[in-house]
């Protein structure tokens, strides 16, 4: 039951984003409340994501992946800040709003870069663990695939 509750914010944001896209082209005043609702749900999901990554970080303390989790925490912070920027974009003048939107996009790109670094380091750690466990030069799963 608890796991199902963590899916609710993501499902709610998905339901709010779809109407936002449908109404976005009309230019009516209907889009403002829908967009604000979607952004508020995005902020809520970002907050839940921050809490979950902090919990994972404390659970993995002292493990082989403890250092790598910091990349996920930083990526989550970037995504949360991007959600805040996107929300604040509606409250600033038009030209400043474009800069705020650009900043939000840059934060998403930074988060993706941090996730790339995380997965590369986890893969390297797993490869090292598999080599140590098998006693071979290279694990069987990576032999012959050219990677």
Tell me about this structure.
The protein has 147 residues and is mainly alpha-helical. Helix content is 79%, strand content 0%. Helix 2 packs antiparallel against helix 3.
Question: What is the topology?
Answer:
Elements: H1 2-24, H2 31-59, H3 66-88, H4 94-134
Helix pairs in contact: 1-2, 2-3, 3-4
At a glance:
The protein is mostly helical and 147 residues long. The chain is 79% helix and 0% strand.
Summary keywords:
4 helices; mainly alpha; 147 residues; elongated; 79% helix
Biggest sheet architecture = none
Number of strands: 0
Look at the helices and sheets and give the structural class: mainly alpha
Please trace the helix and strand order, writing H or E for each element: HHHH
């Amino acid at each position: 039951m608890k796991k199902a509750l963590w899916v609710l914010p993501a499902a709610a944001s998905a339901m709010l984003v779809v109407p936002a896209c449908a109404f976005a082209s009309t230019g009516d005043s209907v889009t403002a409340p829908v967009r604000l609702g979607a952004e508020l749900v995005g902020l809520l999901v970002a907050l839940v994501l921050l809490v979950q990554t902090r919990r994972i970080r404390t659970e993995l303390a002292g493990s082989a992946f403890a250092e790598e989790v910091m990349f996920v925490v930083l990526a989550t912070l970037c995504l949360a800040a991007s959600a805040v920027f996107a929300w604040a974009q509606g409250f600033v003048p038009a030209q400043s709003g474009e800069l705020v939107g650009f900043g939000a996009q840059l934060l998403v790109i930074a988060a993706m870069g941090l996730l790339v670094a995380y997965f590369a380091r986890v893969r390297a750690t797993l490869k090292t663990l598999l080599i140590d466990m098998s006693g071979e030069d290279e694990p069987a799963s990576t032999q012959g695939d050219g990677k």
